[in-house]
């Protein structure tokens, strides 16, 4: 009833119908261009995309499977912000064997492995708006950069230099090569980019007979990994030779997109897990607070609170804000209350007697620490989003077939459905509007479902209708006006319990009235993930990951290419208004 009984003034476009077409659908009056596709040349000298590109070619091109991204406008010499010139930082989460290699199978040669590693990581690229409103990347521009699996990263915070992160290649435990499976993103008010290492475990492997530890297993490390086949070619991915290498991955990484000579920092104080994204807000006491989801069935939602405070006039100080602070994990109680439990060595039973050795150990094994203190197992926490002007926080819980099936994942609280195939969005408000409070109140903003094929809770909440239904909410970002943009990574069969839901899509929610309208439908097979805006909010950059067919059809060899689209209004107006 919520959706029909109240008006929303936040959205000025009409809900669009679902679609199964191999194209991008938008509301009337909107248009889009392709900004950049996998393989487009970014660095000087890089060639145009071809399926036969070499590893070295890929090292200078946009990586594959675009995901989280953020845009940073350039400051002119006179101190003003240039509305038409910006730097885009964007993640490439992984690659698809069948498209990246001409032989179409997992990496066979050392060259294959190098190409795959170069297809990962972050692309930093200058972009420019032309007079007609379209945006173009500036190939070879001074701030362009590829931070791939061979780039150098620095570990910072309590884990840096500890025995857990020392390897044969790096006895200091501070210098890491590469970042992998960069999923969602975040930004800081001091202009840095946060990139989030998610399913890093899949790149590791080991010969038969290798004994893996409990800590390895908790993070999904296995002898075969995801079948990438990198470990026979590079020792760092071989768990038998380098059992500590995976401890150097699974972190939030901070990058200064405006300084191409800077070394990105892995922020160990924020905990090691399969990071989806990082949603930062500045608390009313000035401390930086980062909310984070661990995207796996039955894993947790975390909060980091910095030790020091943000100073708008001291960027150098802010650049160290994520080095020290306190990590917490969420416990949701039935009835709408919740608490944050501190994950610090020596607190809440995280002691030597209980198997925790040090602060570094607690952070490296954050999952084990969170389980020990009794955190609430969630339905795959994906993106978190902080409202721009209120302390409300939202998080997508994408789906969880194990809910109510596995022992430690009971039905209840914010995870109300067994074998949850549709997902939901939880939100919370910190006690006293203070993000550092140990208590919060929560409710469910939306329960995705199918009112056409399902009944009861599986039909979805009142704000989910036959017209706007969706499954598996994943990407979640507030724009500066408080519109909640919801992106899906779900079942696009359009059949059975998903009949009528079409391809993956992006919706827009009013966080107060609960209204949700479908804004965009993606091409076949894709998920929609990653969104950022120009400062004037007249362009939205949106990621189309793993399209299934030949989309976007910008070359002749029929290879689908993950791409970023730049969405505009034909009348030049604000996106969504
Ligand atoms: Fe990379 Fe959880 O999505
Ligand atoms: Ca995701
Ligand atoms: Ca997902
Ligand atoms: Ca994905």
From TrEMBL:
This is Phosphatase. PANTHER family: DUF839 DOMAIN-CONTAINING PROTEIN, SLR8030 PROTEIN. Pfam families: PhoX. It comes from Saccharospirillum salsuginis. PROSITE patterns: TAT.
């Amino acid at each position: 009833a919520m959706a029909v009984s109240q008006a929303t003034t936040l959205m000025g476009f009409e809900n669009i119908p679902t679609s199964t077409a191999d194209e991008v659908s938008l509301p009337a009056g909107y248009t889009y261009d392709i900004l950049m596709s996998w393989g487009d040349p970014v660095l000087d000298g890089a060639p145009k995309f071809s399926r036969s590109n070499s590893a070295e070619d890929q090292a200078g091109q946009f990586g594959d499977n675009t995901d989280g991204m953020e845009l940073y406008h350039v400051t002119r010499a006179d101190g003003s912000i240039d509305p038409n010139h910006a730097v885009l930082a964007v993640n490439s989460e992984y690659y698809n064997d069948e498209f990246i290699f001409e032989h179409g199978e997992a990496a066979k040669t050392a060259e294959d492995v190098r190409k795959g590693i170069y297809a990962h990581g972050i692309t930093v690229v200058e972009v420019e708006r032309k007079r007609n409103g379209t945006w173009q990347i500036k190939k070879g521009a001074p701030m362009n950069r590829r931070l791939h699996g061979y780039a150098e990263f620095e570990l910072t915070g309590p884990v840096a230099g500890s025995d857990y992160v020392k390897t044969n290649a790096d006895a200091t435990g501070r210098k890491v090569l590469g970042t992998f499976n960069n999923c969602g993103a975040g930004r800081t008010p001091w202009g840095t980019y946060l990139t989030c290492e998610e399913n890093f475990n899949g790149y590791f492997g080991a010969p038969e007979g290798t004994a893996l530890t409990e800590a390895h297993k908790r993070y999904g490390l296995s002898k075969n990994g995801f079948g990438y086949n990198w470990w026979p070619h590079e020792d760092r991915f071989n768990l038998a030779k380098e059992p500590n290498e995976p401890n150097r991955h699974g972190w939030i990484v901070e990058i200064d997109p405006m300084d191409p000579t800077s070394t990105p920092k892995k922020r160990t104080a924020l905990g090691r897990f399969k990071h989806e994204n990082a949603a930062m807000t500045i608390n009313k006491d000035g401390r930086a607070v980062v909310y984070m989801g661990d995207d796996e069935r039955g894993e947790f939602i975390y909060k980091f609170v910095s030790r020091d405070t943000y100073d708008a006039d001291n960027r150098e100080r802010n650049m160290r804000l994520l080095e020290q602070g306190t990590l917490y994990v969420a416990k949701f109680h039935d009835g709408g209350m919740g608490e944050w439990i501190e994950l610090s060595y020596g607190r809440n039973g995280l002691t030597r007697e209980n198997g925790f050795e040090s602060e570094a150990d607690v952070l490296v094994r954050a999952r084990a620490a969170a389980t020990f203190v009794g955190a609430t197992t969630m339905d795959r926490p994906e993106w978190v989003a902080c409202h721009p002007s209120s302390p409300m926080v939202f998080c997508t819980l994408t789906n969880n077939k194990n809910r109510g099936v596995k022992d430690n994942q009971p039905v209840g609280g914010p995870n109300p459905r067994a074998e949850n195939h549709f997902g939901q969005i939880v939100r919370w408000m910190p006690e006293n509007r203070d993000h550092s409070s140990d208590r919060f109140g929560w409710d469910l903003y939306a329960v995705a479902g199918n009112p056409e094929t399902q009944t009861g809770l599986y039909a979805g909440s009142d704000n989910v209708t036959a017209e706007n239904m969706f499954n598996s909410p994943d990407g979640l970002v507030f724009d500066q006006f408080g519109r909640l943009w919801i992106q899906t990574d779900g079942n696009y069969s359009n059949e059975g319990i998903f009949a009528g839901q079409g391809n993956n899509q992006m919706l827009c929610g009013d966080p107060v009235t609960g209204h949700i309208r479908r804004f965009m439908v993606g091409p076949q097979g894709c998920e929609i993930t990653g969104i950022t805006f120009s400062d004037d909010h007249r362009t939205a950059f949106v990621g189309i990951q793993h399209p299934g067919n030949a989309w976007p059809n910008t070359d002749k060899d029929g290879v689908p290419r993950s791409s970023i689209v730049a969405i505009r209004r034909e009348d030049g107006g604000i996106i969504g208004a």
